[in-house]
Amino acid sequence: IYEAMPGLLDLAATDNIELANAAEIASTALRGFGLEAGDVGHIADVLARSAADTNASVESMGYSFKYVATVAEAADISLEETAAAIGILSDAGIKGTKSGTTLRSIISRMINPTEKAKEVMGELGLEFYNTDGTMKSLSEIITTVNEKTSGLTQEQRNQALSTIYGQQALTGMLALLEAGPEKLDELTNSY
Length: 191
Fold this sequence. Notes:
By secondary structure, this protein is an all-alpha fold. It has nine helices and no strands. It has helices at 5-14, 19-33, 40-53, 58-74, 79-91, 97-111, 115-124, 138-148, 154-189. Helix 2 (19-33) runs parallel beside helix 4 (58-74), helix 4 (58-74) packs across helix 5 (79-91) and helix 6 (97-111) crosses helix 9 (154-189). The model has no long low-confidence stretch (mean pLDDT 93).
């Protein structure tokens, strides 16, 4: 508690939220991303920066983390890249629990694609994993998806993306693709 307190106070001050809410947000991120109590200051910095650079608030990002943090950690997507993706989704009007469930669905569909999605991925030459079995970063995935779908008509592209990501996550994936890897990298590296 002593080790985490300075970061909790910073987190609470960044968005003028109660200390109890800041503690809940921090503990969700700590557990979800497998971090230590001493990392609360870094969590506060990441959330504050994302809130400053996007349409997300610290509190809405905390709601998002409840739904996506564990899945993002399982896919080896960092706290920073997850926060950046949530910020981009927030800029597109997908906020709070909705951005968390949307990003969770995007990642889940890449971790375990349906048979139909595997078919479409094979036709497009899409791979979400590196040769060593680790998942590519969201930035790499966005680059690859944009490249592999660039020659398709709008109808073909939307159908392919809908098949791969599902109806629930399609809007979020389109927002990430539209923002592009440059925006995601810029936000990720600003932390």
